[in-house]
Design goal:
Number of strands: 16
InterPro entries: NA-bd_OB-fold, RADX
Protein name: RADX protein
Radius of gyration: 21 Å
CATH class of the largest domain: Mainly Beta
Pfam family, one: RADX
Strand content: 25-35%
GO molecular function: single-stranded DNA binding
Largest sheet: 8 strands, mixed
Number of helices: 6
Order of helices and strands: HEEEEHEEEEHEEEEHEEEHHE
CATH architecture of the largest domain: Beta Barrel
Distance between the termini: 68 Å
CATH superfamily of the largest domain: Nucleic acid-binding proteins
């Protein structure tokens, strides 16, 4: 069938009601959002954002309501989609923006693609990777992996991806989303090393929409975290307080989940795997810890400094 592209959509969407099919690759995926309220009677009040791209640039795509439980887990970063009978709307101005791996990619920020059950009922097809043709011109997923030795020099709120060997994972903890709120965020602390520094990555991992992975993080697993944000200098001694926290678009992967992920081709990931092969597993196991309370940032050594 006749296809359109994202750049053409942005120029012509106001003058059209029906749009030609789109062929896009998913570059980023947000956590699933539940927006149900007791007074509103909705069957499936769910929403998820994706950033999708073709040869012309990148645009947001929103999966609504009952399409979320049906499609959310099948739509992975790197998945190629054929979309027909979708809607176009002006984009929501307050949503979070992931940092693209390719800084040269054009971003269409004024509109977003809406996938709905009706008005119109969207047709979604997943194209298997082996059937994707180079002439379609779809961009590859690119990452911004950093090593632990580079972390201390990065600015506050910088976006990056990391890979490391888990040496510590804390128990799951809760924090209120807002003061006096009944809603909580679930998170846990983890340490991961990559052989480039004596210090580990300190990771604050909030539960994303991957409960199967979040619950199974344990020492000696290879942990990949994407779209992490750098948190710098909470106290006078910044070298001890730099850590990474998850963002709305973070994805977490552990041993057993890596196969087929686009980051396996990344040079930094290959270098890390080479380093792990040079390590003695027995030596690393002796240094690992699991569970317990992890106060962070750590309080000063003496009460007078506090």
């Amino acid at each position: 069938s006749k296809l359109t592209n994202l750049g053409h959509l942005e120029m012509t969407w106001r003058s059209r009601v029906h749009f030609h099919p789109l062929l896009v690759r998913i570059l980023h995926k947000s956590r699933l959002r539940y927006y149900g309220k007791p007074e509103k009677k909705m069957d499936m009040p769910y929403q998820a954002y994706f950033e999708v791209a073709d040869g012309s640039g990148m645009m947001s795509m929103v999966l609504w309501n009952s399409l979320c439980p049906e499609w959310y887990h099948s739509m992975k970063v790197g998945t190629v989609l054929l979309l027909a009978k979708y809607a176009i709307k002006t984009s929501y101005p307050f949503k979070t923006q992931p940092t693209p791996g390719d800084s040269q990619m054009k971003r269409f920020a004024t509109i977003e693609i809406c996938l709905n059950v009706r008005d119109p009922p969207t047709e979604i097809s997943i194209i298997p990777e082996e059937m994707v043709k180079p002439e379609w011109g779809l961009p590859e997923v690119k990452y911004r992996f950093i090593t632990r030795s580079e972390l201390d020099d990065l600015p506050h709120n910088h976006s990056c991806d990391v890979i490391g060997l888990v040496t510590f994972v804390g128990r799951a903890e809760r924090t209120r989303k807002r003061e006096h709120s009944e809603d909580f965020w679930l998170y846990r602390w983890a340490h991961a090393i990559d052989g480039t520094s004596d210090q580990p990555f300190i990771l604050e991992l909030f539960a994303t929409s991957q409960p199967d992975v979040f619950e199974r993080i344990h020492p000696m697993t290879y942990l990949v975290c994407t779209q992490m944000r750098v948190i710098q200098g909470l106290t006078e001694n910044p070298s001890r307080t730099v850590y990474l926290t998850t963002s709305n678009e973070s994805q977490i992967f552990i041993t057993g989940w890596h196969k087929g992920q686009p980051y396996t081709k990344d040079t930094r990931v290959k270098n890390f795997i080479k380093w792990t092969k040079s390590q003695s597993e027995a030596d690393q196991i002796k240094k690992t810890v699991i569970g317990g309370y992890y106060p962070f940032p750590r309080p000063p050594d003496s009460f007078s400094k506090y």
